Fold each of these.
Amino acid sequence: MSTSVLDMSVSLDGYVADPDDFLGGEDGERLHKWAAAGGGSGRLSEVAAGFQDEWTAAGAVLAGRRTAELMDHWGGDHGGLPIFVPSHRPPGPAARWGYPLVTYVLDGIESAMAQAKAAAGDKDVQVRGAYTAQRALEAGVLDEVQIHQVPMLLGRGRRLFDVLTSEIELEIVRVIDTPEATHIRYRVRR
């Protein structure tokens, strides 16, 4: 059975991006530097390679519209995976005609997740985007949360869990501590 997993890098103070949608630091990528901590070789660290294996083993992606558009829908696929985008309005021209693996779902987060899980089969659905993660939690369709907590204070911007309508209990599944980030995976308690 498919599991939906939010996977996000986040600063210690809870931000996933600055006000201009950059990820911190002079190059705008500070929150993702943990993944390339392979001794300056440009290769993924051993820990990041393990996460890369998880990401590529997924069967589908559910991404918020803002995230999908900022990433240009990952060029029409996310490593060959179908992408489902919950939205209140139809897609723009590129997603509508140029990206056959991108599906905009106009009838709610529950429907979008159901379609993503059906496409994923027994593989994971990778969830992308803070707003979409919040809505998925509220709707009870997000199964797990994986956080890569980076030891920095971004100080402003877009928070991962800015506004939730109720408390949500989580259970720790795994913790991997590295000098670059602490990686925590939680299961959403129902």
Amino acid sequence: MPTHTFTLNGESVTVEVEDDVRLLWVIRDILGVTGPKYGCGINVCKACTSHINGKAFNPCAVPVSQIGADDEITTIEGLADTVGSDLHPMQEAWIDNDVAQCGYCQPGQIMAAVAKVRQCAAEGRKLDDSAIEEIRNICRCGTYQRIREAIYAGAENM
């Protein structure tokens, strides 16, 4: 069976799994990291949104064979470590703005928001409503207004 090595939340991991297994299943079922949620499996709902090398991506749509030894995957469990704190500012904003209802999509929502704020900063553009609208994560509870407010609040402290 093929061996795959990459960094997950700051730690090097090696797994033995077939090349076509989706990274989400490797993260959740083999490595036991359950923050990224399974929603659709086809990169539509984005409940599994995580970061690869600092950018948002959806591990449900990526075979583990596409992940290299130099790739760093960050899930919601490792997000706070990227700022050396108990919680990332975006996580704090989510709590302060009482965003979650069912909470299922929230790890992916937070990861997408952090990536969008970083992207805007890197491109030298202002985080505004049009930038937030580029985030395509689905929330079945419809807490989009609170999500928007939390993204603005979290961005101020990033």
Amino acid sequence: MKIQLKFRKLMILLLAGTAFISNEARSQSKTPIHIGFKAGTNLSNLSLSRSNLDSKYSLGYHAGIFTRVDFSRLYVQGELLYAHKRSKIEDGRVGAQQAKWNSIEAPVLVGYKLLSSENATLRIFGGGVYSYVLNDKASILRQVSKSFRKFDKSNIGYQVGAGVDIGKFTLDLKYEGALTTISKEFKARPSSFQASIGFMVF
């Protein structure tokens, strides 16, 4: 609960600061700058090195803010998201349980507008993402190996996807893969499919 309150305060401060910077930039430049909110679902999975463990995709969620800067057909988009992810882990001895983890994620994406009109835009994009794990619940991994303590906090990954803008509303579909592991012992690399809907404040 405390983490969620701190995250909400951080989001408000970041939005206020970004809005101020954006207004200053817009007053000095014709480059379109957009700020908005987004939220959606994650379908996540953990790939594990242990042959006796089987992992499957499970549903989670994410929410946060984004800033986009347009350069004709190209654009750069930064996001700050709170994500709750899950993966179903099955073990023949222990049974099946959910591995869960909460993280702050910061993707930086470069996109290209395939089709663009006054009211609608079709986009593709890709880039990197940094995530910081706030906490995890992976009791089945602790039961399988007593040396397992917790996920590595800092992780780097990549994202690719496509999106559609209709007026001020935006819809994104992404695939996220990992370049680093969140558990060195299990060599666990998370992956997820994400769907989100957003609204550009301006």
Amino acid sequence: MMKLSLTKEERKDVNTIFGRGLTVMAEMTYVRMQGPGFGWTMMPLLRKIYQNDEDYYAALERNMMYFNTNPAFLPFIQGIVYSMEKENAKQPMENINESVNGIKVGLMGPLAGLGDSFFTGTLRVIAAGVG
């Protein structure tokens, strides 16, 4: 088993994302689905890596676009997007909007199908059978 070593500050960042991610279904809209919730979960970390207001608001707008997946896989996608945003803060990329939205769109569909079929189909049936 591989042990992941995080600094105390990185562990705090991970806990922040996870804690805020638990409320992602509460911030749903009909137009952007979980997009506002995804952006809200990323707000404190985006503020930490983007000191300039212009860059921060651009990143926030980028992370509040349409998004919809199974909430169980939200931390996985958030971690990938956060690492992309950290790299962009160090060395700005010209196509960061397309990259972030592309990875979110590319992962949200398959992970939603996997999570929905497992949690609402398989797990519920097994739990009912055991009960």
